[in-house]
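Researcher: Structure prediction, please.
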Amino acid sequence: MWLSFLLLLFSASLFTQKTVWKLGVNGLGVNWGTISSHPLPPSVVVNLLQANKISKVKLFDADSNVVGALAGTGIEVMVAIPNEMLEMISSSMDAANNWVHDNVTHHTFTGGVNIRYVAVGNEPFLRSYNGTFNNVTLPALLNIQKALSIANLTGQVKATVPLNADVLSNGNSTLPSGGIFRPDIHTLMLKLASFLHKNGAPFSVNIYPFLSLQQNVNFPEDFAFFEGTQHALIDGPRTYTNVFDASYDMLVTALEGIGYPNMPIIVGEVGWPTDGDMNANLDNARRFNQELVNHALSGKGTPLRPGKPIELYLFGLIDEDKKSIAPGNFERHWGIYSYDGRGKYALDLSGKGRSNFNLPKAEGVSYLPLRWCVLNPSGDMSKLAENVGYACTSADCTALTYGGSCNSIGGDGNASYAFNNYYQLNNQNKDACYFDGLGMVTTEDPSIGSCKFPVQLVPSYFDSAATTYFTHLSITITMGFATATLSFVFQF
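Model: Predicted structure follows.
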């Protein structure tokens, strides 16, 4: 009965001779997102990856600062083309060639960056996009493949399209064996699968068991994790004890149905958030991610692909306080690390089952002074709601929401938390703690229990509050809470 909710869980050559291609090296990958007000410097993050012996990293763009920092590490890298660039690349071979030259070839010299994949778009066939990218995704993919061929990179770098689960449908069945592709994009999926097969590239999809609990109060908790023996799902000769395997095999069934039973699969995103929802907390995140790591590295595979390795990328590495919260307040809290590179909970990424194994912390992190902005009890309280709302318009207040780690600290605590996050966002500028006389600066840590009041990092050259991000073909400028994306063909 639980497969009726599976579609909530995934977020999910004409030009070269086909080559034999295997998925990447054994080990886990992580998603490294940078939508943060004060991101850690790329060099610090790369050292953190190496300290954790992480062998693969998936990016959401191709920022030259980030990609360049991975040079010489041997870490396998997936760079990405944002959806906003698909139309340009689909209609211009020059744009595709320039993008590959500047963002792939530029980094793949001897001793450079080990780029293995180019992600063309991100979940472009989402039903909510109303077909916006349906007609440009495959042409963009073809042009990128041509550009990789021209650059003699097709034996090293594969192009794929990360997809969300709403490309799938379970038809009239509630079992993994009933998985099919969505009828309105069935032809697109046939063409995509044919392309991937012809070029030896993997099918990439995102799986999110967290959404099972978040969107359905009746979903059995043990089945969302890896302990579903009390709510096992029987599908013919196969038994499923967790929704991850059931979701994965639903995709396997859909691929079998269109003639590609052995297509390699990458789980591009999977994880569990730690805040912003009643099911998002440190205990659940540790529980899920540890069980996931152990399962993926055990070599057991899934019921439809027993004994075959599961290649996956944990989502994500570090919290991102400027991400959109349209999907939910938990969106800013997927990291296994907090904003400053401190592990949130014990997690053994080796899969060896070591209990209470603490993640190594980032080195070389610089903080602003130990100062916080809190509510001034002598202020005019008639203006409190207005000022808290103002602070939360740009600062991250998601921990204050129902189920959040700071939801129970009271009204004054809520105001102090909002004021401090705004103050830290603005690098402790004294004017950022005014709030019509309601704010005051203190050197006494106002944290309450599990509700931590942060002290922000010293801004770096990579700070999104003051720095232009670019992938040579697009520029994203972030100032405060306003973001604009411009797409052009640039030569640098």
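Model: The first strand starts at residue 29 and ends at 31.
Researcher: Thanks, that helps.
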